[in-house]
Amino acid sequence: MATPAETAEKATRRTGTSGRSLRYRLLANAAVISLALAGCQTASVDSQFGSTIEEDQGSEQNLASLTAVIRANPSDPSAYNVRGSAFGRAGRYQEAIRDFDRAIQLNPRFFEAYANRALIYRFTGDLGRSAEDYNRAIQINPSYEAAYIGRGELYRRAGRTQEAFNDFQKAIQLDTTDPRAYHRRGLVYQTQGQHDFAIDDFSTAISLQPSAPEPYNGRGISYIATNQLDNAFDDVNYALRLDDSVAESWANQGLIYERRGERDKARKSFQRALQLDAKYEPARSGLARVGGA
User: Fold this and answer.
1) pLDDT tens-digit map of 62-113
2) Chain-centre distance of CA 62, in angstroms?
3) pTM as predicted
4) Sign of the C-alpha dihedral, residues 192, 194, 195, 198?
């Protein structure tokens, strides 16, 4: 059997639905598809997947260095944009917004700063301002793929599926190499039951960033939906090897064990998911189905 990475390399990229017949497959068990889609919808794809901000950028040492740069160049909008990104990585959102505000004040056409501020507004729940900033970034630079990806995710989380699809599609048409565009378009395909298209998109995301667990989980769910349990098991286990602290991965493993009739193993996987996230409903409902406490 091919490894997940080998499967990714063989995948065909699809950038639209024109001229293609859409293939729909349904899970036999409605509870299973409910669990599967819930798992995909709750995955965090910004903090762990596809971020343009380096992991250590939010450290106090790095922030101090960036502050020194700003003191030496107080009129440089790029310096504020970089430090704002670092504050965002550190979860210091109000300080991030102030830096992006300053960057935009110094350069009102700084489309990257608008998109970065939009992401922070989304994290703080200010979705109206987030949408305004993404729109402004796209207005300034209609070829800025990151803004389409960010706005598309805003639409996807709001249930505006077609608008989300259009934005991810636009980023892909711009020849983006950002795996988030493919991963998120795959999620849209998945919610529509178009699992073959979803598998292709998740595979492309994996080929662009093979170290991220999220697209392996996404592809695993679509493999489950199309009754390719061996492929699904490979993907979910690989996601766990990459990061075993993700509740979704354990819940997905439990789902596969459940489909195989291995209830004891399923119970242990669902329990592990709940240890990591006690409020993770897909694991809770899965545990109830297999007779867990």
Assistant:
1) 899 999 999 999 999 999 999 999 999 999 999 999 999 999 999 999 999 9
2) 26
3) 0.81
4) negative
Query: Are the C-beta atoms of residues 189 and 182 closer than 8 Å to each other?
Result: no
d(CA 86, CA 96): 8
Structural domains present in the chain? 1-6+24-47+212-293 (1.25.40.10), 58-155 (1.25.40.10)
**Residue 170: φ, ψ to 5°:** -65, -45
The C-alpha atoms of residue 293 and residue 290 are separated, in whole angstroms, by 9
Segment 30-51, tens digit of pLDDT: 233 333 443 444 333 343 323 3
Rounded-to-integer distance, Cα 281 and Cα 285, Å: 6
State the amino acid at position 193 in one-letter form.
Answer: G
Please provide the DSSP assignment of 181-200 as one string.
HHHHHHHHHHHTT-HHHHHH
Q: Which two tokens stand for residue 107?
A: 């350069």
